[in-house]
Amino acid sequence: MKDRQLPQSGVRKMIIERDAQPTIDEQLVRLEDDVRKLKVEFDIYFNGSSKRPPYDTKGRVETLIKRLADERQLTYAQRYQYNSLVARYTSFRDLWRRTVQEREEGRGAYAQREKAKREQEAAPAPERTTFVCADARSEVPTVKSLYDTLVEAKRRCGENVDDFSFAQFHRMLTQKTETLKERLGCERVRYSVQLEGGRVQFKAKADK
C-alpha cells in the first residue's frame, strides 16, 4: 500500500502555520496579561497562600520583554505601550525584591505585620463591654457611655470617626432600640462592643 502524500500546496501551508509567529500586538497583549497575572501570583505568595515565589511566570515575562526589546518593527504607538508595560513591571519587580528580602531577613513592613499577627494571636480574648437600653431617647448617660466605648474601639482599629457624632449615634440608637424591641418582643436591648480580629464588633440582642 502506497503512502499518501500531501499536495505541495498543503505542505507549504503546514510549514507556514508551523513557522507563524504571534504579531507584535498579540505579544503586547500577552505581556500585559502576564504582568497582571504575575502581580496576582506575588500577592498570593506574600499573603502566605503559596510557599514558593512565582519565578516561572517572572521568567516568562522577562523573556517576552527581551524579545520585544529586540523587535525593530515596533511602531511609535507600540513602542509607547511597550515602554509603559516595562515601567510597570520594573516598579513591581523592585517592590517584590524588597519585600522578599525583608521577608527572608525578618524585617520591614512584612516583619511588622507578622509580629502584630503573633501578638494578636497570643493576646487574651478581648473583653466585651455591654450596655442595656430600655428607652434610648431618655437614657442619655447610658447611650453616651456606649458611644464613647464604640468611638475608642474604632480609633484603636484605625477607623476615622470625625463624621461620627454623638447626636447622629443617639438618633440611630433610639430608632434601632425601638425597632428591636418591637421585633424581638422585649422591653430592653443589650448592646455589646468588642474588638475581634482587628475589627470592631457592635452587636445587639434582646435582654431577657
- Share in β-strands: 5-15%
Say how many strands there are: 3
The share of residues in helices is: 55-70%
Walk across the major sheet and give the strand order.
1-2-3
Low-pLDDT residue intervals, each spanning 5 or more residues:
14-18
- How far apart are the first and last residues' alpha carbons, in Å? 94 Å
Q: What is the alpha-carbon Rg in Å? A: 31 Å
Mean pLDDT: 82
Whole-number count of domains: 2
Q: Please state the overall shape, judged from the principal axes of the Cα atoms.
A: elongated
State the major sheet: 3 strands, antiparallel
One letter per element, helices H and strands E, the order comes to HHHHHEHHEE
Number of helices: 7
Broad structural category = mainly alpha
SSE blueprint and pairings:
Blueprint: H1 8-19, H2 24-46, H3 55-69, H4 76-105, H5 108-122, E1 129-133, H6 140-156, H7 166-184, E2 189-196, E3 199-206
Antiparallel strand pairs: 1-2, 2-3
Task: For the structure shown, list the relevant keywords.
208 residues, mainly alpha, 2 domains, 7 helices, 10% strand
Give a written overview of the molecule.
The chain contains 7 helices and 3 strands; from the N terminus they run αααααβααββ. The protein folds into 2 domains: 8-118, no CATH class; 124-206, no CATH class. It has a 3-stranded antiparallel beta sheet. 63% of the residues lie in helices and 10% in strands. A hairpin with a 2-residue loop joins β2 (189-196) and β3 (199-206). The longest helix is centred in the middle third of the chain and has 30 residues, at 76-105. It is mainly α. The relative contact order is 0.07. It has helices spanning 8-19, 24-46, 55-69, 76-105, 108-122, 140-156, 166-184, and strands spanning 129-133, 189-196, 199-206.
